[in-house]
Amino acid sequence: MRETETAASFAIFLTKKRNLPEVTPDELLLGCLRAISHFGIVQFGPVFLDLEEHGVDWLMAPDKGGPRVAYSQEVVGILDHAARVARADGSAAMRIDHLLAAFAREQSGLAGELKRKYGITGAGWRHAAAQLETSRPTQFPPEPKDDRDAVSAARDYLSPEDAAEALGIHVQTVRAYIRSGKLPALRLAGERAIRIRRSDLETVLEPLVPQG
């Protein structure tokens, strides 16, 4: 489950537990903090928050039982603002840092209480949200199909077989290019093995000129 979904689920759970008819910004904020907590402790910028001090049993998993509850108009406004934050951040989906950043302008309720207690400004709140690990997830390249692919991708010198695979052609075509001098190649000293510079692969490519 994504952290935003975890936050919303826990916010609804808290609302039912408190016998409230609607999810308020306080429950949503606690849900967000619960989603990024570790053993009930949240590091938000330079501040460490203990969820237990705010009546949150971080060991309890949310359940889906009980009456249905709706979001209050205040929560709807925060969610709309978080969606705008996500769009401004170039994200296709709302993340937990976007949702927390939307609380930066809140001056009442739990958000306002935390800001006053710890001396957090609106800019400081947004900065803390931006520092979350979820803010800029690391982009990993696609995993290679096998170890040979990983080694080949990292090498500057390729075997004829690797060169053929890189170009998407048969290895005998590569060997024909080498024999004709169209593709520069090198031979290992004292060996029959042939190696091709990766940068030289472009020598067998030419622009496609449209007909007519």
Task: Report on this structure.
The protein is mainly alpha-helical and 212 residues long. It has 2 domains: 3-130, Clp, N-terminal domain (Double Clp-N motif, Orthogonal Bundle); 147-204, Arc Repressor Mutant, subunit A, CATH 1.10.10. 44% of the residues lie in helices and 9% in strands. The chain has helices at 3-17, 25-35, 73-88, 96-101, 109-118, 122-130, 147-154, 160-167, 171-180, and strands at 22-23, 41-44, 47-50, 70-71, 157-158, 186-187, 194-197. The strands form 3 sheets. The protein has a 3-stranded antiparallel sheet with strand order 5-7-6. Helix 1 packs across helix 2 (25-35) and helix 8 (160-167) packs across helix 9. 26% of the residues are buried. The model is unreliable at 135-154 (pLDDT under 50).
List keywords for this structure.
Arc Repressor Mutant, subunit A; mainly alpha; two-stranded parallel ribbon; three-stranded antiparallel beta sheet; Double Clp-N motif; 44% helix; 2 domains; 7 strands; elongated; 212 residues
According to CATH, what is the class of the largest domain? Mainly Alpha
Number of strands: 7
Average the pLDDT over all residues and give the rounded result: 82
CATH architecture of the largest domain: Orthogonal Bundle
Domains, number: 2
Query: What is the strand arrangement across the widest sheet?
Result: 5-7-6
Low-pLDDT windows of residues: 135-154
